[in-house]
Design goal:
Layout (H helix, E strand, L loop, with lengths): L1 H31 L4 H15 L5 H15 L3 H23 L7 H6 L5 H36 L3 H37 L39 H7 L3 H11 L8 H4 L21 H18 L6 E6 L3 E6 L7 H5 L2 H7 L6 E3 L8 E6 L6 E2 H6 L1 H4 L6 E7 L4 E5 L6 E4 L6 H13 L7 E6 L23 H25 L4 H11 L8 E6 L2 H7 L1 H14 L5 E7 L9 H6 L2 E4 L5 H8 L12 E5 L7 E7 L2 H14 L16 H5 L3 H11 L4 H8 L3 H13 L18 H13 L1
Parallel strand pairs: 5-14, 8-11, 8-12, 9-10, 10-11
Antiparallel strand pairs: 1-2, 2-4, 3-4, 6-7, 6-14, 12-13, 13-14
Helix pairs in contact: 1-2, 1-3, 2-6, 3-4, 4-6, 17-20, 19-20, 26-27
């Protein structure tokens, strides 16, 4: 009897083990593929809610437990191991939640960040009860206990075996290090024969990012350089690249104290600050699509074009029907039927893409009955964004197929945004800023924000990423842009002294020499409304923007310019020629579309974030449904960043531009300013009388004062407005001379 029960018990144990392994596989599939039915979707949501970013630890634990059950002979030993696995799982989830600030621990856990609800509660309770140091001690103790329970070995045997392994590893590592030192001497001997310094592990075609994570985007233009003359270096040093890269990552920490007030212990914002996308409901979509396919084919057939819909792609805002025209049918015939197709489908408008880039098909884009909102959090969670190494990665939205659209501002290198009021420009600017804030610390990227409308971007005042408070005065905006030009020129002087060509090589050189100088941060200049600036000081603004667009790429400075009036007097030919990447939201006419995109199509957009994204190097613009960001999300993000550190504004931001080169060229400028500020009136005729100069010189002095923000713009027969008093000007002159 006893012998007959033995096989049955063994069979039951095997069935349990196989069941646990199968359950582990199903749980992994639910996490990897969200479309596994209702049960799969529900299971995925529960796992994310409970374990957060450690969602894969639970199915792995279940699978390991099932495998252990198949190999374990004693039931008591197996139960002991299961408890050990659970202890290690709890420790892992809690450790994943420790980097999140205590004030956000529970909220982040409920939102699926860190270790989820389990890790959030455990982290919050332990840190509240025992403090941070006590929490580390408890987690270390539990980790050791869980390891002993899983391995079923004593601590003494583990330490003894580990010490023997450590001795073997150290001996082998010592041999490798000595070999490397010997090879490095040969490397230094070879490099002395070259005119330019040799950098181990990379040549000019393999740049290292200034923060150890990203290859320089600028080097895509340097591909024409020949590798002759340094091919021997590549052959010698390439095998040492992993070791050198690890050393670079370790040394880069010495350079991350650019601003101690903002960079020390800086933590990137958690995803829990952003609104989570609700569960999508798909109901009548498939029925509507099948009906539209029949309508489309019937409409084309009634005009003598017999073609079938080969593929249907449904996006958040539109659905694209792909058709292959029969031989002998001109594409222009199909394009001319846009209004007839819109009539048959009861659509407000239809956009026809003929042909689809990369396909021998025509795409007919029909608006959906209801536009699905694209949440920024979903894009930041995607692998396209989280896996991007660039600090200037932008999560823009989703394309026609519902795939995330992530761009790199460093490769654009500047961006021009246009669209009518309410089309989504300001939301796009907020998503661009938020995307960079989720990627970069204050010592890595700085912002210069110019917002003449004073309502959209002033929320960001007080964050540590700003070089100055948000500029809202159009007159001071011209001064801000001139500061940016001066900063660009100063950077190029540093590059020339160091013998490098761009900011990435400069920061890499500083890091290798361990000079102690802080790395230069990237600077993103954002202008919310270019038309307002062009009305106040068109010449100065156009000159500054054109110079920045032409030259600032290698200096690590990038422009993002938005305007709601894409006319030629705002987007001049000089500005447009130097900003090749564009985004167009819905505009009122085809003329405006051609101004921004050099082609029509933007006049048929739907609004509400519907855009055409036209980056440099792309043949045709890509239709994108822009990401949406609530005002509460922006407030939460700014509130979190303000707690991370205080801003370190550039002290000379406005004062450094009071004494420009023009003043040094005209010795009467201080006297002219004194006359204007004493009398409170600014006119050319008064300067002619007081200073005894001609009309041309007096007019030139007035123009200089206008550019410097001392007097206002031309107002017809009225005298110009004097913007500063004599005391304010004297203080600025005094501050300038002291600096």
């Amino acid at each position: 009897m006893k012998s007959s029960n033995q096989p049955q018990k063994k069979l039951k144990v095997e069935i349990r083990g196989i069941s646990l392994i199968a359950a582990s596989v199903l749980l992994l599939l639910c996490l990897m593929y969200p479309s596994l039915g209702i049960v799969g979707s529900f299971t995925r949501q529960v796992l994310i809610f409970l374990t957060g970013e450690g969602r894969y630890l639970f199915p792995l634990t279940v699978g390991i437990a099932g495998y252990s059950l198949l190999r374990t002979k004693k039931q008591a030993t197996y139960s002991f191991k299961v408890y050990g696995y659970l202890v290690l799982l709890l420790v892992g989830l809690t450790v994943m939640h420790l980097p999140i600030p205590l004030d956000y621990a529970l909220k982040a856990g409920i939102g699926g960040d860190g270790g989820g609800l389990i890790g959030g509660v455990a982290s919050y309770v332990l840190q509240k009860s025992f403090g941070q140091l006590g929490t580390y001690i408890i987690l270390l103790t539990l980790g050791v206990m869980g390891t002993l329970m899983v391995t079923n070995r004593s601590l003494v045997s583990i330490v003894t075996g580990g010490s023997k392994s450590m001795i073997k590893w150290l001996s082998s590592a010592g041999a490798k290090i000595s070999q490397f030192i010997y090879q490095e001497k040969e490397v230094s001997h070879i490099s002395k024969k070259k005119d330019e310094p040799v950098i181990l592990g990379c040549d000019d075609n393999e740049p290292v990012d200034c923060y150890g994570e990203q290859a320089a985007a600028l080097d895509s233009d340097d591909g024409e350089e020949s590798d002759q003359g340094r091919s021997d270096q590549v052959l010698v040093f390439r095998k040492f690249a992993p070791l050198i890269n690890q050393e670079d990552n370790r040394l880069s920490g010495d350079l991350e104290d650019y601003d101690v007030k903002t960079s020390k212990d800086y933590l990137l914002p958690p995803l829990s600050l952003l609104s989570k996308q609700p569960q999508a409901r798909h109901g009548k979509g498939e029925k509507n699509i099948s009906g539209n396919v029949r309508k489309l084919e019937d409409t084309l057939g009634s005009f003598g074009i017999k073609s079938k819909v080969s593929k249907v792609v449904r996006g958040p805002g539109i659905t694209r029907y792909e058709i292959h025209p029969p031989p002998g049918v001109k594409v222009s015939r199909i394009v001319g039927l846009a209004d007839d197709i819109a009539l048959s489908m009861a659509a407000p408008d239809v956009r026809i893409e003929a042909p689809i880039p990369g396909k021998s098909a025509v795409g007919i884009e029909v608006p959906n009955k209801k536009i699905a909102r694209v949440y920024l959090r979903e894009l930041i969670e995607s692998m396209d964004f989280s896996g991007a190494l660039s600090k200037l990665s932008l999560a823009l939205g989703k394309d026609v197929a519902g795939m995330p659209v992530v761009a790199d501002l460093a490769k654009m290198p500047h961006l021009l945004i246009a669209g009518a009021t309410g089309a989504g420009k300001s939301v796009c600017l907020n998503t661009i800023i938020a995307s960079i804030l989720y990627k970069a610390a204050p010592h890595e990227v700085k912002f210069l924000i110019i917002d003449p409308k004073m309502v959209e971007l002033t929320t960001y005042n007080g964050i540590a990423h700003l070089v100055s408070p948000v500029v809202t005065d159009p007159k001071k905006a011209a001064i801000s842009l001139r500061w940016a030009v001066k900063e660009m020129e100063n950077r190029y002087e540093l590059f020339a002294e160091a013998g490098v060509r761009d900011i990435y090589r400069y920061n890499r050189l500083k890091r290798e020499k361990l000079s102690g100088d802080p790395p230069l941060p990237l600077i993103v200049i954002i202008i919310d409304e270019l038309a307002d600036l062009m009305m106040v000081a068109p010449a100065d603004v156009e000159d500054a923007v054109s110079r920045l667009a032409q030259m600032s790429r290698a200096a690590g400075m990038h422009l993002v310019i938005a305007t709601q009036r894409p006319s030629v007097d705002v987007i001049t030919g000089l500005i447009k020629a130097n900003i090749p990447s564009r985004i167009s939201f819905a505009v009122s006419s085809q003329i405006d579309s051609r101004t921004i995109l050099d082609m029509g199509g933007a006049e048929k957009l739907l609004g509400k974030g519907d855009m055409l994204f036209y980056p440099v190097g792309v043949v045709k613009p890509v239709r994108v449904q822009g990401a949406f960001l609530f005002d509460t999300d922006v407030d939460n993000l700014v509130g979190y960043l303000k707690k991370q550190g205080v801003p370190d504004y550039v002290e000379k931001f406005l004062a450094s531009d009071i004494m420009p080169e023009e003043e040094a060229e005209d010795e009467l400028f201080p006297q002219a300013v004194g006359v204007i500020t004493e009398t409170g009136h600014a006119s050319i005729s008064m300067l002619q009388r007081r200073l005894h100069v001609g009309y041309a010189r007096a007019a030139r002095l007035i123009d200089i004062m206008e550019r410097k923000g001392i007097v206002g713009g031309y107002e017809g027969s009225k005298p110009r407005t004097v913007l500063i008093t004599k005391e304010q000007y004297d203080q600025k002159i005094k501050g300038f001379t002291q600096n």
